[in-house]
Amino acid sequence: MAEQAVPKVSIITPAYNAGLFIAETIASVQAQTISDWEMLITDDGSTDDTASLVSALAASDPRIRLFRQSNGRQGKARNLGLQHAKAPWIAFLDADDLWHPDKLRRQFEVLDLNPEAGLVFTAGHSFDSDTGQVQEAFPAREGLIGADEMYREILLGYSLPVLSVLVARHWIDRVGGFEEDLRVQNAEDYQLWLKLADAGIRMYGLNEPLFRYRIHGSQTTFQDGINLPSVIWALALAKLSRVKEEDKFRLMERRLNRYLVHQIDVLEGKRLDKVVALYKEPLRHTMRYFQVSLLLGAGKKYFKSWAYRKLSLEAEAPAIHPLLTQ
Fold first, then answer.
1. Each residue of 227-257: pLDDT tens digit?
2. Strand pairing partners for 124?
């Protein structure tokens, strides 16, 4: 029997209780104007009919493969797909999102013209699942971006939409794939981009709207509401070579301070407690935790009026160059 040809791109899709949307997502992959792909779907402990729907579709399209695991969240599910991926290029598509038919073709055209790029990301938009109406545009900076510049942007909080990315497999292997620690989930993709930039990858932004991010009430990020704790943990656990550990933690505290001041009106109960607890762990700043807790105990109005002084926010201009070692 002849050995099966290696596909050009492996598409990694984690799926948890995605029965309502998974068929449409797979259809958007099957509609791609290049056909040399494989789609690796990890059922992440679903309790609905996700696995049976994927199995039925895979029976008629051998490019689709299903894997199953107990619920371990996105990082573990994506890593399982990567373990079985055959292609030299990797793309990511969550089980409720959609691609434009030309998405992969346009990205490979960019790579043909810019072989020094190890990753191409695109523009796109979110849409309301019930009405189909566009909610928010996600533009992409056009052109080739050096690793140093992208590193600074990501350190400050810029994250590539995961469904927009096409990346060389050898770069993912170089940085060890996705973080599986549960504290990082919902920011495991952000951490991967940070590790890739730290390793020196060059990225290309293609400002064409080639993805559609679905907004619906049952999605994980919608349920979680905020992902700052995950982002802080992603930074804390990332092993970075070009930023000193103390500078990284200083940047994390600065981001946490700013977030509290600007979001305090909408943070309540356990969500607020979860954010404030970040000062103790992972920031290891117990005194700051007690200081912030004391300010909050006096009321949000008081907190906002004194936070700039107490959290030193008046000196919080986003200067990044000192955070990067040469």
1. 899 999 999 999 999 999 999 998 999 889 8
2. 138
Q: Which amino acid is at 233?
A: W
Task: List C-alpha distances in Å: 105 to 99, 297, 300.
Answer: 11, 55, 51
Closest CA to 91 of 148, 180, 22, 160: 160
Contacts of 165 (CB under 8 A, 6+ apart): 91, 92, 119, 120, 121
Q: How far apart are CA 86 and CA 12, in angstroms?
A: 11
Pairing between strand 119-128 and 203-215? Answer: parallel
The answer to whether residues 274 and 179 belong to one domain is no
Q: Render pLDDT for 300-326 as a digit per residue (tens, 0 to 9).
A: 888 888 877 777 665 444 444 444 443
Give residue 303's domain range: 243-323
Number of H helices, E strands in the chain: 13, 10
The single residue listed with the structure tokens 């656990």 is 237
d(CA 283, CA 281): 5
Alpha-carbon torsion (305, 307, 310, 316), positive or negative: negative
Dmax (CA) for the chain in angstroms is 74
**Of 84, 42, 83, nearest to 66 (Cα)?**
42
Specify if 236 maps to a domain. Answer: no
DSSP letter (8 states) at residue 321: G
How many structural domains are present in the chain?
Answer: 2
Please report, for the domain that includes residue 217, its CATH number.
3.90.550.10
